[in-house]
């Protein structure tokens, strides 16, 4: 049961209680109770942005696991957060349907849910795939909560898919003799635009998040305008680190076709560059034969129950508004 309706009911009952025959001691206790109700009614809840990592619950941080295990929390999760991680939520869970073409509507729904929870005095956990500050709109959400709620959201970092997903697919994004640079980009810019990748460098690995839906367009731009060779190695990993992980490997001449052939969908991470072939030198073009291990949810639930509540601290000695645990 939520706290706010209970507080309202108690306050109303105290107001209706007969005063004529109340002793001074009873009246004093009633006034104290009324003041406590007024203080509770004026209290706002909190918002914490939490990184859920790429999908495997065992890649959650200790702080993230503790927060989503709070039975009193309202957890507002993105659609792409894995079902294994969502199953660990102990409180109320609401999942936003950020399907292609509906992202802005879903984002508005997320804000509305968070405002509702905060105004009810609840702890709101904004659960985001990967890391909140790596193409996760985390900064935008903090600014929104600042403006609409007048509060500073806390932030719990997560394992970003830009590093964890290639690793899960057996790709060292840096490797001597193959890549000494790493570029990370989103496939979708503001208002649906396509970010322009830097000109081709044979010693650079390019990792793209949120790009699988327009991979053909991105590949065409790389070949026509950015100097990428058609035989540049390319790899796409879907639902990295989860039991449903699938990976296709090829080069820029066929990677977009392979994604369509095998119906690779988001969440997926794209890798261009020689590093994609370092550990897969003999793998044929197509769907790779590999699976990620299943997560031990029973172990995680036991760990979550034993984690104490820490005190929050701030970035840079309190100089930054966003807090981190």
Automatic annotation (TrEMBL):
Keywords: Methyltransferase, S-adenosyl-L-methionine, Transferase. Residues 46-255 form the Tetrapyrrole methylase domain. It comes from the Eukaryota. It holds the Pfam family TP_methylase. InterPro entries: 4pyrrol_Mease, 4pyrrol_Methylase_sf, 4pyrrole_Mease_sub1, 4pyrrole_Mease_sub2, CobA/CysG_C, Siro_Cobalamin_biosynth. CDD domains: SUMT. PANTHER family: SIROHEME SYNTHASE-RELATED, UROPORPHYRINOGEN-III C-METHYLTRANSFERASE. This is Uroporphyrin-III C-methyltransferase.
């Amino acid at each position: 049961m939520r706290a706010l309706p209970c507080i309202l009911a108690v306050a109303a009952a105290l107001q209706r209680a007969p005063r004529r025959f109340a002793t001074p001691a009873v009246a004093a206790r009633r006034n104290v109770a009324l003041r406590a109700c007024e203080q509770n009614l004026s209290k706002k809840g909190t918002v914490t942005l939490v990184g859920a990592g790429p999908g495997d619950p065992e890649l959650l941080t200790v702080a993230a696991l503790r927060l989503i295990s709070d039975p009193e929390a309202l957890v507002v999760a993105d659609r792409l957060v894995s079902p294994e991680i969502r199953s660990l939520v102990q409180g109320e869970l609401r999942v936003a349907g950020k399907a292609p073409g509906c992202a802005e509507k879903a984002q508005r729904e997320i804000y509305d849910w968070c405002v509702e929870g905060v105004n009810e005095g609840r702890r709101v956990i904004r659960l985001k795939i990967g890391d909140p500050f790596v193409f996760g709109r985390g900064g935008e959400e903090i600014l929104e909560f600042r403006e609409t709620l007048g509060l500073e959201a806390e932030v719990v970092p997560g394992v970003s898919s830009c590093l964890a997903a290639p690793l899960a697919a057996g790709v060292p994004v840096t490797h001597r003799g193959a890549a000494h640079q790493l570029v990370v980009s989103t496939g979708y810019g503001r208002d649906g635009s396509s970010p322009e990748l830097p000109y081709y460098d044979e010693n650079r690995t390019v990792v793209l998040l949120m790009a699988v839906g327009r991979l053909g367009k991105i590949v065409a731009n790389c070949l026509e305008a950015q100097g990428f060779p058609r035989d540049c190695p390319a790899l796409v990993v879907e639902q990295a680190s989860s039991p449903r992980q699938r990976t296709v490997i090829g080069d820029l001449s066929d990677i977009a076709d392979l994604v369509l052939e095998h119906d690779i969908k988001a969440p997926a991470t794209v890798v261009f560059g020689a590093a994609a072939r370092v550990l897969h030198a003999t793998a044929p073009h197509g769907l790779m034969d590999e699976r990620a291990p299943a997560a031990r949810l029973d172990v995680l639930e036991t760990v979550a129950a034993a984690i104490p509540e820490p005190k929050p601290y701030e970035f840079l000695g309190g100089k930054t508004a966003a807090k981190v645990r």
